[in-house]
Amino acid sequence: MTLRKLGSTLGEWAPERRSPGDPLLAIAAAWPEVVGKEVAANAWPSQIERGALLVTARSGAWSQQLTFLSEQILGAIRERFPEVTLERLRMRVGKLPAVAARRGEVVPGQTAAPSRQRPKALDAQAALAGFQADVQAYQRAKRTAGWKECQRCGALIAPRSQAFCVVCVNARDDDRAGIVARLLFEAPWLGPEEVLQTVAGLTPEAYDRIRRRLLRAWVDELRLARKRHAVKAEINHVRIRKLASSYVLLETRIDPNRLELDSPVRRNALGDLYAFIREVETGN
Is residue 101 part of a domain? Predict the structure, then answer.
């Protein structure tokens, strides 16, 4: 192996052009391209919380105007970042970060959506009207290129993609996972084959992921309840008993008619939580 000088190696190195791993950073980096420089100078993405993108606006007028265009802004973000799940836009009035004053610098490696050349907007209404026109022109260009509408939400998706956009696929998977979680909680004695037959579109791999995630969540909830119980805090005894029972049945796959409260199988399944569960069940 030939050794090379560190200086020459570093001289040839360049950072990989990709969006930041944090979705908020990615959206902020492309924000001036998504909404236009004029809008970006007066409103800036500041937080993502529970599927909502919180945008800070310079004034109440800007906040109100952007609220009217929230669906178009979300659509533009989803097209650029299909892996980011956003359900709604929330506005607030406040101080903008210093980066907003730069009116949007293009991030290396990112391509801005086509926009028409226009003079600098004189007010918020004109700037927003320009953004709306850009979005409409961009959508027309995509339709001309053969892009189609998602069958669930109507967002434009690539010609060779499936019938649904990434956001709707994720939402559909989340809905299915919720159905499976409720089913496994209420009827944990059902086998994988029975669950797969009951829930349309569920795959064995998805079932296994949901099952393992659910068991971890149940253990965490039981441990939290134990901590609260230790300091004499109020806990939901009915839910704890139900949770423990569902956990054991789903973990062991044993026939519920053969499972005794103090059986070795149940002890092994609950581990260090067994004493706490028995205390809840006996009312001590």
Answer: yes
Any domain includes 2: no
| Per-position b or e across 135-172, b if 16+ CB within 10 A of its CB | beebbeebeeeebeebeeeebbbeeeeeebbbbbbebe
Domain that holds residue 258: 169-282
Written as tens digits, the pLDDT of the chain (284 aa) is 444 443 343 344 333 333 445 888 888 888 887 887 778 888 899 999 888 899 998 888 888 888 888 888 888 888 788 778 888 889 999 888 766 655 444 333 333 444 444 555 556 667 677 777 777 777 787 788 887 888 877 777 777 777 877 667 777 888 899 999 999 999 988 889 999 999 988 999 999 999 999 999 999 999 999 999 999 899 999 999 999 999 998 998 877 767 666 678 888 999 999 999 999 988 76
- Verify that 27 and 137 share a domain, yes or no: yes
Closest CA to 227 of 240, 214, 212, 238: 240
Distance CA 182, CA 242 (A): 12
Looking at the structure of the chain, the number of domains it has is: 2
